Structures are given as C-alpha cells and as structure tokens.
Amino acid sequence: MIEVKAVEKPDERRDFPRGHLEAVHLTGLDFAVATFEPGWRWSESVAPIAGTESCQVHHNGYVVEGRMRIRMDDGAESEVGPGDVFVCPPGHDAWVVGDEPTVVFDFAGSMAQEYAKAKEG
Asked: Bridge partners of 62?
C-alpha cells in the first residue's frame, strides 16, 4: 500500500517559544518540519518542556533555509545551513544563527514523535 501525506496538512502541530513543529506519521516514517525563529535556542525554548538539560532526540536532518549552530554536551560544535544533511545524536543544544528563520526537515522519527512534548510523570 502506498501512503502519501502533504506537509501542508500535518497530522499534528506543536508550538513552542520562537518556533513550531509540524509532523506527518506514515507506516515506517515519522517526518517532521521544524521552524525556528531568530532568537530560538533549545536550552531556552524547549528544555523547560522536555525537562532535560540538553536535547535527547536523535536527528537525521536536512536544512531547507537559515543557519543553526549545534553544540554537543562534550563541547564539540558544528554549524549547518541550507542544503546541509546532518546526523546529530542525543545530548546537544542548538540555536538559530542570524536573523532569518531556520527550517529543518527531520527524517529520524523521534522528532516527529517526541520533540517539544512535555514528559508525563
């Protein structure tokens, strides 16, 4: 069976300070489109929702527009921008670089399933 969904009609949308995520869920693929506005930083905008000190979501990403800096918990850093494909394991902070929104497509699944959802307790 072929499944097709449009990102313009996501299954769900999650808003968080200075950004939002739209997710589509298909058999075998949870796909997310994340938009981060200038001034967004994970440790300020999403950490209070996630309840962790750093992002614990694995990302397989493609940057559509904008720039983002990523700092791993061990101090390693990298910057990604338009056209970059990246893999980022759990244990990082990230922030928008510059004055334009950053849009990331994430194919790893965890982002579409878990990102910016409050931990149940």
From this structure: 85, 105
Reported pTM: 0.91
- Rounded CA separation 82/97 (Å): 12
Give the tokens for residue 73.
């918990």
Task: Indicate left, alpha or beta for 64 from its phi (over 0: left) and psi (-120 to 50: alpha).
Answer: alpha
52-72 tens-digit pLDDT: 999 999 999 999 999 999 999
pLDDT above 50 (res 121):
no
- Measured at the CA of 112, the angle between CA 51 and CA 53, to 5 degrees, comes to 20
**Is pLDDT at 116 greater than 90 in this prediction?**
no
| Joined tokens for residue 101 | 């929104």
Helix (H) or strand (E) holding 112: helix 110-114
